[in-house]
Amino acid sequence: MPKYPAIALFEFATTPAGAVVADAMAKAAPLDHFQVGTVQPGRYLILLGGQVAALEEAITAGQRVAPQPASDWILLPDIDPDVHAAVLGRRRTEIVDALAVVETERIPRIVAATDAAVKSASVQVLEMRLGDGLGGRGLVHLGGLLADVEAAVEVVRERIGDPQAVQTQVISNVSDGLAGAFGRATRFGGA
User: Fold this and answer.
1) How many CB atoms lie within 10 A of CB 177?
2) Are 87 and 159 contained in the same domain?
3) Same structural domain, 118 and 102
4) I want to staple 123 with a disulfide (CB 3.0 to 4.6 A). Which of 11, 23, 142, 158 is the partner?
5) CA distance 176 to 72
6) Is residue 121 part of a domain?
7) Is residue 106 within 8 Å of 114, Cβ to Cβ?
8) Helical (H) or strand (E) element with 138
9) Distance (Å, whole) CA 105 – CA 113
């Protein structure tokens, strides 16, 4: 899996607005990773990876043509490798001592908050889901020792800022049944 020096993630309320911005971004700078698509309920995501200067150039070009501003966006110039891999779809199945389940209203926020949490507490990103089958929400599962998982959740809550925009639960001594189910898939009936 390639590692990009930086990533940027944009969420738009409508597909037409996102598509116009994505086109301008792709034309503006050389990007190592360019991924676009829709998530429920009718939102449009743009994920960029590459050199910081190229992403900044692409972002500026996209903002110039945007028919409406992004609902939310982030630029992470020094993203943690564990978060980076999770954003690109890597999933881990091991659960150490405790499991945090975190869900946010906006997708870019979960990435930025997870990056801050992983950098401040000794936890692993087990899985990150960006809107798929979640009604447009972001979801992350963090694993580690109970104290570290609890500390990571506090960092996430602080980073999100709005208590109504984030839901969290910490499960200690995860049951074999949940650990086994989690190891197979977190999406009902699928991978």
Assistant:
1) 8
2) yes
3) yes
4) 142
5) 37
6) yes
7) no
8) strand 138-144
9) 12
Shared domain check, 105 and 176 = yes
Close Cβ partners of 156 (under 8 Å, ≥ 6 residues apart): 100, 102, 113, 114, 116, 117, 166, 168
| The total number of residues written for the chain in this structure | 191
Instruction: State how far the alpha carbon of 81 is from the alpha carbons of 45, 60, 88, 125, in Å.
Output: 21, 26, 11, 10
User: Tokens 């499991």 sit at which residue?
Assistant: 99
Helix (H) or strand (E) holding 72: strand 72-76
Tokens standing for residue 177: 């049944």
